[in-house]
Design goal:
globular, mainly alpha, 8 helices, Vanadium-containing Chloroperoxidase, domain 1, 199 residues
């Protein structure tokens, strides 16, 4: 019951946030400029380094295909199928909202582009790595190894989003929107996976 209420709150909050972003597509959320200016690294070499940590587009598709192949090699058909299904899910949660919102990027390497909200990397990291965290929780028996792997993947989710902001390529609210959309998509993915396993 508590989980269902939490999911409902997350869904409502995500819809509200995305609606506000779409209506006020050229406006920033409160604190966006202040937080970005205090955290952003202006050194161009560091910005280029942080910009490498982008798992949307080709990198995201390649990751999905590679992990799906690994699952197939280990005869994990349902897991491979669900991972492949993340391709259209990412299109729905990343590409479609970006087209509607059209928020301009911050000043920097991607200035002039209007696909800032939500952060594709934040969304993809929660969805792709979050599903692995779930699978590890279900299948890895040694407690220390299980917790260690889950913590490492959890840290990767946080850092991938943070690095995009440090590179000056996203506003903080872009990350929040991405994490929320990714979490909602992850819940749906885990539900579909459980249904698939039952059959």
């Amino acid at each position: 019951m508590i989980a269902k209420v939490g999911i409902a709150i997350l869904a409502l909050a995500t819809v509200v946030l995305f609606a506000i972003a779409a209506i006020h597509n050229n406006d920033l959320f409160w604190g966006d400029r202040t937080i970005l200016s205090s955290l952003r690294i202006d050194d161009t070499a560091w910005q280029r380094f942080f910009a490498w940590f982008d798992i949307r587009g080709v990198a995201g598709v390649s990751s999905i295909l590679a992990i799906s192949i690994v699952f197939l090699v280990f005869r994990k058909g349902p897991e491979a199928l669900v991972y492949l299904a993340m391709l259209p899910v990412m299109g729905f949660t990343i590409v479609l909202p970006k087209a509607f919102v059209n928020r301009p990027r911050p000043e920097g390497a991607l200035e002039g582009f209007t696909d800032s909200f939500p952060s594709g990397t934040a969304t993809a990291s929660v969805l792709l790595l979050g599903f692995l965290i779930y699978l590890i929780g279900e299948s890895v028996v040694p407690r220390k190894l299980r917790i260690g792997l889950q913590l490492a993947l959890g840290m990767a989710i946080v850092l991938l989003g943070l690095f995009r902001m440090l590179a000056g390529e996203h506003w903080p609210s872009d990350l929040v929107g991405g994490y929320m959309a990714g979490a909602l998509a992850l819940v749906a993915t885990i539900w579909a996976y459980r249904k698939l396993k039952q059959h």
